[in-house]
Design goal:
Order of helices and strands: HHHHHEEHHEEEHE
Strand order of the largest sheet: 4-3-5-6
Structural class: alpha+beta
Number of helices: 8
Helix content: 40-55%
Number of strands: 6
Radius of gyration: 18 Å
Largest sheet: 4 strands, mixed
Distance between the termini: 24 Å
Length: about 230
């Protein structure tokens, strides 16, 4: 069950963890490569700040980004800033998101995100939580998928399985961890069962691990398209 108030509190906690990790690095480390191809840590931090503002737009019923090109340009522009500038921006943009989410609103309404994707307003805080938590991992500062809470890992695994559900370019798949199981992919033919530790399954579904630690039965490990 989605509880946006609980998720907003989780976003604040996750943001504090991120800021605490960043307090241990310097400008040189902020400019180093992240785990995301082609992005420095500065790119990741710039994206996180601009994503907070973009979700403010979503909650206001405005376009998430002016355009895909504008989104990319903003990230490239802000990526090279000093660590202090990133920290200020992360705090300020997080506060703007929190303030917008605190306004009286119909949380059951439908909102539009990027590329025509729609969702319930109540799920926007969880979407922000996903951004903060997974990109914290992407920074390569010692915060790993194994450090994510079991509740978050289970919810995000279910969410990602739903994103691939019904897609003909993904073989029928049964995803199994000790937290549960989820069907995803196409519906034609027997399913391949993919099982493993929750963090390894989440890493595979989110494109952050290659699945080498997983066990596939009934067929080869499915190749997942980019999210």
């Amino acid at each position: 069950m989605i509880n946006h108030v609980h998720d907003l509190a989780s976003v604040r906690e996750a943001t504090d963890r991120l800021l605490d990790s960043l307090s241990r690095i310097d400008n040189a480390a902020a400019a180093e490569a992240s785990r995301l191809p082609g992005w420095t840590r500065g790119h990741v931090l710039a994206h996180l700040s601009r994503n907070a503002d973009a979700l403010v737009n979503v909650l206001r019923g405005e376009p998430m980004y002016a355009s895909g090109e504008a989104r990319d340009a903003d990230i490239a522009r802000d990526a090279v800033r000093s660590l202090d500038a990133h920290l200020d921006d992360l705090r300020d943009s997080a506060a703007r998101f929190d303030a917008q989410a605190a306004l009286p609103a119909d949380w059951e309404r439908t909102v539009e995100l990027r590329n025509g994707v729609t969702d319930r307003a109540a799920r926007v805080p969880f979407r922000r939580l996903v951004e903060v938590e997974l990109h914290h991992v992407d920074l390569g500062l010692g915060y790993e998928l194994e450090h994510l809470s079991p509740a978050f890992t289970e919810r995000e695994t279910e969410f990602l399985a739903q994103r691939f559900e019904g897609r003909p370019d993904v073989p029928p798949t049964l995803v199994v961890t000790d937290a549960g199981q989820w069907r995803t992919g196409g519906t034609e033919g027997p399913a391949t069962t993919v099982s493993g530790a929750p963090a390894d399954v989440l890493g595979w579904l989110s494109g952050r691990r290659d699945g080498a630690a997983l066990k596939a039965e009934g067929g080869p490990l499915p190749k997942l398209p980019p999210l």
